[in-house]
């Protein structure tokens, strides 16, 4: 039976093998993930994915030492217009380094800037461009928020640390705002992320009147773990969702397509809770200001009313007696005046009234008699001038076609004329006409 190696012995053999056949100046194509800079050194994860499924085929820690990083970053920015960041697919040159305690890493010494954006970033931009062309990318951002969003639907992995941080921050706010939260569990990593989150969104939409907003949260991790959120169908659902959506996925440096379509993007799950608390606090401040304004206005009104009431109260006790005295004095003056002037003024007025009555009666009788005489005269005149009176004196009226004949020129041979006399009419035919 062969003796077993210790882990350190195995690592030394691997290191010896690499030393015997060193891998230096090797060009490698990989996607950058979880890139960060610390003390001038740039650390990252190099990643290869299956083009058809998107699953990770290989990972390797990478590093650019501080002596090299500023130059490489500046050269890359000068050609591509971008800094080195997670999501870029790059072609890098370097050497394989193996440490018995930290394992294998790739020390990068050069970057080909012509090999620009990684496939993940390219796919993200393609999704954003497609949503923009379809006119839906800004739909969720245009939704109006209620004054206070207290009823929150949360999409997160059940038992996830990010969800715990969110709940702890939300329910221990200093304003003691009472939030109502319901968790809709979903897979937040891997190939099932998109359909799982979409299913949760559909469940929320079925009872959307019960909630004020939706919060999609996931704690931090490797940038490659967040690639599942760069999905067109998921982004389309978020963009068209009928409630405002808050995205709190990953760390501050992480970006997904959902950040471009959601109503609000925050850095972390905790930041999502802080944002909701800030909205509630702002609403409470507005209510306090309104309440203070109402209190001041009411106080001013009450103070003014109290002043007027005090004045009226003091005046009211004296007003009835004073009014009675004034009325009594007025009545006495009126009685005296009436006694002095009543008899002297009434007697002459009565005499004038009697004389006027007699004069009116005489004038009315005379006017009526004159009017009757005028009516009789006009009646006799009308009787003498009427057509019947004229006909009875031997005159006649000749008509043709319903019109009176006034001139010989009104007639022509063959016309039928009607002649009216005192006791009837005669129809004739004109043979000839003769003018004077």
Descriptive labels:
436 residues; alpha/beta; five-stranded mixed beta barrel; five-stranded parallel beta sheet; 9 helices; elongated
Task: Describe this entry's structure for a reader.
This protein has 436 residues and is an alpha/beta fold. Helices cover 46% and strands 22% of the residues. The chain has nine helices and 14 strands. It has helices at residues 7-20, 69-80, 119-133, 161-171, 193-205, 232-239, 258-261, 269-385, 387-392; strands spanning 26-38, 41-49, 56-64, 89-99, 103-112, 151-156, 180-185, 213-218, 245-249, 264-265, 397-400, 403-404, 416-421, 424-429. The strands form three sheets. It has a five-stranded mixed barrel with strand order 1-2-3-5-4. Strands 7-6-8-9-10 form a five-stranded parallel beta sheet. It has a four-stranded antiparallel beta sheet with strand order 12-11-13-14, with no helix packed on it. Strand 9 (245-249), helix 7 (258-261) and strand 10 (264-265) form a beta-alpha-beta unit. Helix 4 crosses helix 8 (269-385) and helix 5 packs parallel to helix 6. The relative contact order is 0.07. The mean pLDDT is 83.
């Amino acid at each position: 039976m062969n003796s077993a190696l210790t882990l350190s012995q195995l690592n030394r053999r691997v290191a010896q093998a690499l030393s015997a056949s060193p891998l230096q100046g090797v060009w490698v194509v990989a996607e950058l993930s979880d890139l960060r800079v610390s003390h001038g050194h740039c650390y990252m994860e190099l990643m290869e994915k299956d083009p058809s499924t998107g699953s990770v085929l290989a990972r390797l820690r990478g590093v650019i030492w501080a002596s090299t990083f500023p130059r490489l970053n500046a050269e890359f920015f000068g050609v591509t217009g971008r800094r080195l960041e997670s999501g870029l697919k790059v072609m890098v040159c370097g050497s394989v380094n193996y440490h018995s305690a930290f394992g294998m890493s790739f020390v990068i010494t050069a970057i080909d800037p012509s090999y620009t954006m990684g496939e993940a970033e390219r796919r993200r931009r393609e999704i954003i461009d497609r949503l923009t062309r379809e006119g839906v990318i800004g739909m969720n951002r245009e939704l109006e928020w209620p004054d206070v969003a207290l009823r929150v639907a949360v999409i997160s992995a059940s038992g996830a640390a990010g969800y715990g941080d969110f709940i702890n921050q939300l329910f221990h706010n200093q304003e003691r705002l009472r939030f109502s939260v319901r968790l809709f569990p979903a897979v937040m990593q891997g190939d099932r992320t998109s359909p799982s989150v979409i299913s949760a969104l559909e469940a929320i939409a079925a009872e959307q009147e019960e909630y004020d907003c939706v919060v999609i949260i996931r704690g931090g991790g490797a940038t490659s773990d967040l690639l599942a959120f760069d999905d067109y169908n998921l982004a389309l659902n978020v963009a068209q969702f009928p409630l405002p959506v808050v995205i709190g996925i990953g760390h501050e440096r992480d970006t997904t397509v959902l950040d471009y379509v959601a109503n609000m993007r925050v850095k972390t799950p905790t930041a999502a809770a802080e944002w909701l608390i800030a909205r509630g606090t702002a609403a409470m401040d507005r209510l306090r200001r309104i309440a203070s304004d109402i209190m001041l206005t009411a106080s001013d009104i009450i103070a003014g009313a109290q002043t007027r009431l005090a004045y009226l109260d003091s005046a009211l006790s004296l007003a009835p007696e004073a009014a009675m005295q004034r009325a009594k004095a007025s009545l006495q003056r009126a009685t005296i005046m009436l006694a002095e002037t009543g008899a002297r003024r009434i007697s002459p007025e009565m005499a004038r009234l009697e004389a006027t009555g007699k004069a009116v009666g005489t004038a009315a009788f005379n006017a009526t008699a004159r009017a009757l005489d005028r009516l009789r005269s006009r009646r006799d005149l009308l009787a003498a001038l009427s057509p019947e009176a004229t006909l009875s004196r031997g005159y006649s009226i000749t008509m043709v076609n319903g019109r009176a004949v006034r001139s010989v020129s009104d007639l022509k041979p063959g016309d039928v004329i009607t002649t009216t006399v005192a006791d009837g009419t005669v129809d004739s035919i004109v043979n000839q006409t003769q003018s004077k």
